[in-house]
Amino acid sequence: MTCESFERHQECDRAFSGSRSDDIMAGLPYAADAESPLKPAELQVLRSQYEKEGEYVSLQTKFNFAWGLIKSDGRNDQQEGVRLLSDIFRASPDRRRECLYYLALGNYKLGNYGEARRYNDSLLELETGNLQAQSLRSLIDDKVAKEGMMGVAIVGGLAAAAAVGVGMLVRGAQRKR
């Protein structure tokens, strides 16, 4: 069973349909779709097909399985999905453009925001009007800003705690004199 069996995941078929027009990019999912994992049985169908094809696995099957893994809630699955997409990206120069967005999504889900931004920006260089990539750029920027603010708050809290500790030590040393 291939991606055609999953009507709600038709972007799999569009991604490698052979078309080189904006039809492919119009079929890209929004980042929110990456947050809804496949049912275990659906992912197992993709895994079985991938394993059945063995060393002669088709690009479509490999892509479908990679996308299913990226949608997973499991970090190891997500990492494997990114690895498979990276293999496709390297091995199939004519498919690189299609892989950019999915690699950006996979890295975003993994918290690799620098990598996600790099892939997404590469796609936006090719297609400045791509709404899905623009939306993903905003999500990446928001996460980076949020984590940056959390980092500043943590460092600020540690600095304040250190200042209190030093103050207590100084005060204690002055009393002993």
Automatic annotation (TrEMBL):
Q: Which keywords annotate this record? A: Membrane, Mitochondrion, Mitochondrion outer membrane, Repeat, TPR repeat, Transmembrane, Transmembrane helix
Pfam families xref list: Fis1_TPR_C, Fis1_TPR_N
Could you state one GO cellular component term attached to this entry?
Answer: mitochondrial outer membrane
Q: Name one GO biological process term.
A: autophagy of mitochondrion
Q: What is this protein called?
A: Mitochondrial fission 1 protein
Indicate where this protein resides in the cell: Mitochondrion outer membrane
This protein's encoding gene: FIS1
Origin organism is Elasticomyces elasticus
- Could you name the domain of life of the organism this protein comes from? Eukaryota
Question: How does it sit in the bilayer?
Answer: Single-pass membrane protein
The UniProt comment on domains reads: The C-terminus is required for mitochondrial localization, while the N-terminus is necessary for mitochondrial fission.
**Where is coiled-coil annotated?**
none
Presence of keyword Transmembrane helix: yes
Transmembrane segments annotated in the record for this chain: 148-170
